[in-house]
Amino acid sequence: MRFAALLLAGTALLPSSAVRAQTAVPPATGTAAAKQSFTPEDFARFAPRTAYDMLVQLPGFTIRSADQERGLGQASENVLINGTRIANKTGGAIAELQRVAAGNVERIEIVDASTLGIAGLSGQVANIILKNARKAGGQFEWKPDFRAHYSRPNLFRGNISYTGKTGAVDYTLSLEDQAGRGAIGGPELFYAADGSLIERREEVFHQESDTVTAKLRLAIDGPGTSKGNLVLGYSPYWNPVYDFEQRFRADGNDGTRLRRQRLNGWFYDVNADYEFALGPGRFKIIGLRHFDHEPVISTQIDSFASGAPDQGTRFTRNSHITETIARAEYGWKMGKADWQVSLERAVNGLDQRGALATLNPQGDFVPVPFPGGSGIVREVRHEGMVTYSRALGAKLSLQVAGGGETSVLERVDGDLPARRFFRPKGSVTLGWKPDAAWDLSLKVRRRVGQISFYDFLAQPNLKSERQNAGNPDLVPPQSWEAEMEVGRTLGAAGKTRLRAYYHRIDDIIDIVPIGADDEGVGNLPRATRMGLVSTSTIQFAPLGLPGAKLDATVGIERARVRDPLTGQMRTISGTQDRWAELNFRHDIPKSALAWGVDASFYHYSPYYYLTEVNQENEGPWFVNVFAEHKNVLGLTVRATVGNIFSARHYYDREVYAGRRTTNPLVFRQSNNQLIGPIFTFKISGSF
Prior knowledge:
With 687 residues, the protein is mainly β. It has helices spanning 2-8, 16-20, 51-55, 92-97, and strands at 36-38, 79-81, 105-112, 124-130, 137-142, 145-147, 158-166, 169-191, 197-221, 227-238, 241-249, 255-278, 281-304, 311-334, 337-359, 365-368, 375-391, 396-411, 419-432, 438-448, 459-461, 466-468, 478-489, 494-514, 518-539, 548-562, 569-570, 576-587, 593-604, 607-608, 612-619, 622-632, 635-642, 648-656, 665-674, 678-686.
């Protein structure tokens, strides 16, 4: 983390005049409610098309999307619109800002979360203030990409939207394809316990995903003090997978393996809220309905050069996922304090019909027993919270939130009784701004985490030939979390922040023994996570290169849990334990041209199953270069060449004859595979 420390201490390396300059970041007002304000002129050099284009250029600011929390709960997305939290599960404020024209933004304020009276937020929050009189108009973006190897072209990624007003109703119509492509190819090597090569596979893997979302958003201001929003969305999606392996074995039993997966589903979302003045405060009601139909067919067939009959497995899963939330909030001001009371009811459900079949010598798939593969899981949850916020002085502010939740969790179609829980939750947040250059926040909270209902039921992994048993005893994790964030404004030279955190987690989700021989997702008694994250923006104008800046994020995490087999401490499975993102951009002065370089590094710890240990990473570094012209017949055009230094896909795996503490090693697997360059084009404009 020496790099993070250097970024935070960067002010010591800059000329004092550069630190004092305030041309890029206006000075704070010197009160607990002090904020930094950015106008559209501060982003002019980037020629932004949307409010989101402005948001991503905020110096030293890291956008945090809304966590997939239980229900709506407390706020987690650190972006507001006109001082209001966008409480939905269809993208929140970030998704809305991608549809708002940059010309409709009056300013962007950076404020301390503890001054807002919105439970759940900490650190810095971006509040996008929109103009009262907004122009009607549309936005569009087309962003195809092409890979040099294995993958099919991604031709349809993009979005188009139109925002207007009729009478008292603002409306936005949008259509978006969130399309993705992934592909790797190359050798998979398998070694016996003595180190001898027993098999080599040549793999070609690619998958394509497309989620097409049609959305209508309606907003009404009035009558009187009332405001309301309605968002309707419908999204069909497709995600085919193709995985072919040519197998060369030391014993001569060569062959091929073909795995195909088809996922053609759809979901819809309905989000509505309505608020109005009531007594000394405002009352708000929120409703949400989500329904997802997710049918999966996964087939794997082994063929042999010897002419032996094919062997194969087919897994089918037809799932319906539902979520229904009703929430009420009432907020008022009493003296110098802001109060809020909230009540929420959420019902979540999963109905899975799973089946397993094997290929017989005649080429037909014959059903086989699949215990735990079908079932209905449901949770009914109620939450109540009270939030108190106030300034403790000119430079210090406090927010306290407290309450709890009750829940009933059950396998509706099982013979086990429903389980009932009560869990306290809440937070204490302090914000301190001693002067215009420094700010600090401290937060301690009690949190209840989320679980996947799929883990209650059996889910086979065909490629790894591993069966994850269902676990009807799974419970949500609970944690005590402490976070501290300190920031330093460098004036025209930029901004730097450092966040430190420590989490103590009870009932952590990991891989656990189930029954005498099975394994699956379950709870371990306790775990800890601690880490540091540095986020900085360095403007190069004071250093003699106008129009250039570097956004840098560097993080490290240490996560520890006691292994259920060995009893020894190890990392939590699949933890991102170190990462870095470096984004350099140069907008050439007095021109419409820009260029830049992005570099990213992500490293993940191993997954610890009972019968194997595996670790997957890509890299070590992904490096992309881009060139952009901000006015090609009124359009912004960008071309990017990705992965120019040929980052690769790495996968290492150790598989045992049974549980890894008492059974011998069967084989080791090592993959070092090609990803190749990625060519991306982006065309965006307004109408």
